[in-house]
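Sample 3 of the quickstart, ligand zinc ion:
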Amino acid sequence: MKRVLMHPDLVQVGHLRAVLEGNGIACLVKNELLGGGAGDLPLNECWPEIWVLDERDETIARTLVEQFMYPGVQENLASWTCTECGEAIEGQFGECWQCAGSGGGVFEA
Ligand SMILES: [Zn+2]
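Result:
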């Protein structure tokens, strides 16, 4: 078995387990039950963990973990600058969050 993720948010861990299983990777979650009795341990020793059962799945599992935890990093979309307000917008956003402009067209009042 190989551990592919340690994360304090059990909701995220649960989602990720579903993603891995959806990709045919057998995995299990350790430390699923937080709370009582954990007080004497260093915090990160009782974070939920995801382990893949088959070590051959480790590489693809880690890729899926990264894509899940850091969406956009892998996509490598170029950022753009809004022509309306000049705000720099990250590539995954199709609209300007500042003025809701599309960045490409000219908007007239
Ligand atoms: Zn704008």
